[in-house]
Predict the 3D structure of the following.
Amino acid sequence: MLFAALYAAEGTPSGVLADVAREFSPRIDIRSDRDVVLDLSGVTRLFGHARTIAEELRRTAADRRLRVRVAIAGTRIAARLLVRHRAGLTVIEPGTEAAALAPLPIALLGEIDPERVNSQLPTPNSQRSSKLGIGNWELGVGPVFRQWGIRTLGELAALPSDDLAARLGDDGLAWQRLACGEDPHPLVPSLPEERFSQSLDLEWPIDELEPLSFVLGRLMEPLSTHLERRDRGAAVLHVRLHLVRIDDTTPAVHERSLQLPVPMRDARTLRTLALLDLESNPPPAPIDRVEVAVDPTPGRIVQYSLLTRALPTPERLSTLMARLHALMGETRCGAPALVDSWRPGAFEMKSFAPVDANLIDRSKASGLRPQASGLGQDLRPRPALGPEPWALSPTAKRPVLALRRFRHPIPVRVRIQDARPDYIAIDRRGMSGGSIESCAGPWRTAGDWWREGWDRDEWDVTVRGGTTFRLFRARDTERWFVEGVVD
């Protein structure tokens, strides 16, 4: 095995030293912008001896205007320690690492990214090593070695291993192996950042969605294949359209980003979602270049069950929601959710996501909750008209009163007698009013006075036919409405 360590001067631009290293070996370990380690296994067949490789590395770095130190050794830790202590080129024969590191100061161990080194070391099993602080040289074994009078790596390597383990545990042995030039773990190459994107320059500008769909389909196919090979899914889809500048007010780029509900990589679904979004937000000028990119995430793993109801696939659901957004508007489609407000009928629109059937079954098994409205849960007492059926049988469930609210309250006419509703007239087919036999109320609620708020009195009334309504009177207009029917 043969490894090379590159150490650049302070202020080196990010990624430049890594690009130099990748020209010589695909297996590199990027410790920082200034510190890179290369695996030179097999490289000698291309460049010759180790010193020749070191000179080529330094020459290539000089072409990039970088001043670097180069050290080549049989282990990575030996090359990293030597490159920090010696300037220029340093080449030692494999197997002589301990002798080459012996005269080096022990303080170098605190400069080689100790936290990352010790993350791969064995877990300490002694109380002494846990108190010293694993992975931190100055708070751990560094001050202890200085108190013992150890100044060089050779002096640390010469200590009896058994006595060192008895006093410092596995942490002390790990640092001793580093001082001898032994690598604690195999090299884990740093992979370059992989981009999932496709682009296409058009011969003629296009300004309609139909020809754009063919272009997007041509780009989505290789993008989907790339995601599938890497077992990735798209979390965010970016569509970037370069426009023809008609005048000074025309933007150069029309860009859209779609947050996908689940990771997906189906080419047809991605194309459909992009087209539906562009249908709602069309570009203002003809297009001469199309770019698509995704933010990758680990692929979706789905475990199906024979005991639960099947849900629509995320791809079909996302396509349906995109079509509804294009038809009705993005803010008018979704799932309603209650808000923390006493305002009647207050809700907000959230993204629609189906609920797992198992969760619904478990919530039913735990018991039904009272019907919630915009004013909170309806827990008002009701007068008993006879013996309660659930009181006769201990196993019977207590019925729950539910209010079926009307999305738009129905205007009605109400006769008042003795400050209480006495008669209700409803001009709505399928609903009959009449004399009010019993009523409860009023409950006065008001709020949001600083904007378009509400101020009303509510009543629960039962007409002669047995139907129970929720009435309210708007105090600002003195008008009456039916808000819902109690079941």
Observations:
- Residues 114-134, 365-392 have pLDDT under 50 and may be disordered.
